[in-house]
Amino acid sequence: MWAFELSVDLIVRNARVGSNPDIVTDIAVSDGIVQELGAAAASGDTEIDALGALVTPGGVDPHCHMAQISSTGVPTDDDIHSGTWSAINGGTTTVGAFAVQHRGDQVRDVVNAMVDRVSREAVADVALHLILTEWSESIKSDLDWVLDRGIVSLKIFTTYDRLRLAPDAVIDAMAAAGRHGMSIMVHAEDDVMITEGRSRAIATGLTDARGHQESHSRLAESAGVAEALRFADRADVPIYLVHISTAGSLDEIRSARSKGAAVTVESCPHYLWLDEALLQGDLTTTAAFMSSPPLRGAEDREALWAALVAGEIDVVASDHSPYRMDAGKLPNGNATVFTEVANGMPGVEMRMPLMMSAVADGRLTLERALEACCTTPAQFLGVYPQKGALLPGSDADLVIWDTGVERTVHHRDLHDAVDYTPYEGLRVTTWPSQVLFRGQPVGRSSSPGSASYLKRQVSS
Ligand SMILES: [Zn+2]
């Protein structure tokens, strides 16, 4: 142990930064950056005594939809301000959001508009991915410019009429991304099976959430995953598979990895915590729990937990998709059918508390939770170790956790612009007691634009 020599802006004393409760350290912060970890003799202008509480780096959530239009054509109810405010209150200080090139849009226009919005509205730092819904020579020629603007990942869809690329375009987009050193995120579900399942559900009068479940079947996901892995192999690029929800998909991934495939695998808290039984019943309640892929059953959940513990799932992201029940979820009120429901659930604020509760409950080690929620997503975003780490030189984005609490989740305690949480009534055992963003305690409000657009770099 050594002592800090200079006085600093802030010292967080008696912080537990690892799994051993007997080892505490002091964290010295100046200019919003972690200076040192050790035994601090010097004083800070501000001092916070963590009293031995767990302190982690702020969460990094690489998959959040904010200020975006859904696949059904309705806007998310969180803009960048409310979405990042919700994130930071849940201990997530960096989010990956999306600039979307809808058909007919110019890539440069959508990227510039989103970067501008982030700069004006964000209260947690934001990195961007670019969703492409078309593939053309002119888009291809814009990729150098996109990289220059600090976007290093493309996202493509293999399903949804408004979003999907044709299979040959998928392969060519993957190859082009690879040539630029960009990564490519794939929403992989088999469009033929989904379209067929949807028609069959409607023809048989199945118009509620079960129709969605029928069409976005387990097989549709694992078939889409298998195809995406084959395409990536053909294009010779690493891929990032978003929101994996089934044991069958994990089998496909295992098989591809055994042959050398470079794939980063993401799952989400709703697939780890929530059961498909929530999709039984009237759409006026079940729409809240509709996502794509849909919630699955106990067997898939057990497989996901085992894969997360084993490190086969690399990232846990929220896929935050904030649609209000009185808006995008039920656009036609009681007469809404499943094809009209905006899919997805809000979750950016709950991801870290859920995962840290899983640590406290002994389901997951602290190390695995931090890898899945901080380190690996920061590396994927190309912002590590500025983000996702608690090291000298990292941004002082810190979360002091209350562990061993008994708390019931209520939407009224959350900070998003939605009107529900899918975790309403759930008991959790860990909650953020204080969040520091770039060395500043997060208070009762935060002025829009106080955070930054993170220009990303291709990692070497
Ligand atoms: Zn998503």
Describe this structure as you would to a colleague.
This protein is of the alpha/beta class and 460 residues long. The protein has two domains: 8-56 and 390-441, Roll (Urease, subunit C, domain 1), CATH 2.30.40.10; 61-372, Alpha-Beta Barrel (TIM Barrel). The protein has helices at 80-89, 107-121, 137-141, 143-148, 167-179, 191-203, 209-215, 218-235, 247-258, 269-273, 283-286, 298-310, 351-360, 366-381, and strands at residues 8-15, 25-30, 33-38, 44-49, 55-57, 59-61, 92-101, 125-132, 153-157, 183-187, 239-241, 263-267, 315-316, 398-408, 427-437, 440-441. The strands form three sheets. The chain has an eight-stranded parallel sheet. The mean pLDDT is 94. Zinc ion is lined by residues 63, 65, 242, 319.
List key phrases describing it.
460 residues; 20% strand; 4-stranded mixed sheet; binds zinc ion; Urease, subunit C, domain 1; alpha/beta; 16 strands; TIM Barrel
Describe the protein's topology:
Layout: E1 8-15, E2 25-30, E3 33-38, E4 44-49, E5 55-57, E6 59-61, H1 80-89, E7 92-101, H2 107-121, E8 125-132, H3 137-141, H4 143-148, E9 153-157, H5 167-179, E10 183-187, H6 191-203, H7 209-215, H8 218-235, E11 239-241, H9 247-258, E12 263-267, H10 269-273, H11 283-286, H12 298-310, E13 315-316, H13 351-360, H14 366-381, E14 398-408, E15 427-437, E16 440-441
Parallel strand pairs: 1-4, 6-7, 7-8, 8-9, 9-10, 10-11, 11-12, 12-13
Antiparallel strand pairs: 1-2, 2-3, 5-14, 14-15, 15-16
Helix pairs in contact: 5-8, 6-7, 8-9
Bound molecules: zinc ion.
